[in-house]
Amino acid sequence: MKCLIVYESYHHGNTKQIAGAMAEELHADMVKATDAEYASLAGYDLIGFGSGIYAGRHHVSLLNFVRRMPHLDGTPAFIFSTAAFPEFKAVWHRSLARKLRRKGLVMCGDFSCKGLSTDGLCGVIGGVNKGRPDAGDLARAKRFAATLVASVPKPQRAPAGESPAQAH
Ligand SMILES: Cc1cc2nc3c(=O)[nH]c(=O)nc-3n(C[C@H](O)[C@H](O)[C@H](O)COP(=O)(O)O)c2cc1C
Fold first, then answer.
1. Which of 6, 93, 119, 129 gets mutated to test ligand 1 (max ligand atoms within 8 A of its CB)?
2. Is the overall model pTM greater than 0.85, yes or no?
């Protein structure tokens, strides 16, 4: 199964750590949203989209990437994030999930965990979620990725020398 992870992680590199753990589990390619190319997307069987949460949403570069993305009807997808308050992931993930569904992707799951934040008031009190994500968060991200492998339908690839129309 060919997997791609498209991410943005500018505040403390928190989401990049989570993306890396998932990429290890999925043997996935990893690319920043600003470097990702639309032309290569159709070759993937599963695509993950993640960033930190900033003012209640995923990073604008990720949202813009998805907004301009071609339709990928039926492609399995997942969402992830790190946040000061991942308890609200249903709220934080809503906008990106809606955009992905509009592009025809099929949502297979989502994941969020705590990430160090020194933004605004969090910074005034010396930061929240110090040391996060930690080893436990990375392990949970890997377990989440493993559940995706089990749930996503296996791609039907044609054996070498056989055209896709001949594959069973
Ligand atoms: C400008 C800014 C706004 C943020 N807004 C939120 C927010 O609305 N909700 C939340 O839970 N965390 C918020 N955070 C905390 C980040 O989501 C958190 O630190 C995240 O782990 C950053 O990920 P990154 O290091 O990958 O960029 C904000 C952080 C910044 C810098």
1. 119
2. yes
pLDDT tens digits in sequence order for the chain, 168 residues long:
999 999 999 999 999 999 999 999 999 999 999 999 999 898 999 999 999 999 999 999 999 999 999 999 999 999 999 999 999 999 999 999 999 999 999 999 999 999 999 998 888 888 999 999 999 999 999 999 999 988 887 776 656 555 444 433
Alpha-helical (H) ranges within 6-87 are: 14-26, 60-68
Q: Domain extents for the chain?
A: 3-153
For 3-153, the fitting CATH number among 3.80.30.20, 3.40.50.720, 3.40.50.360, 3.40.50.2000 is: 3.40.50.360
Residue 34 alpha carbon to ligand 1 centre in Å? 18
Which residue is closest in CA terms to ligand 1's atom 6? 54
The enclosing H or E element of 96 equals helix 94-102
Nearest to 79 by CA among 105, 44, 42, 104: 105
CB-CB contact of 41 with 85 (8 Å): no
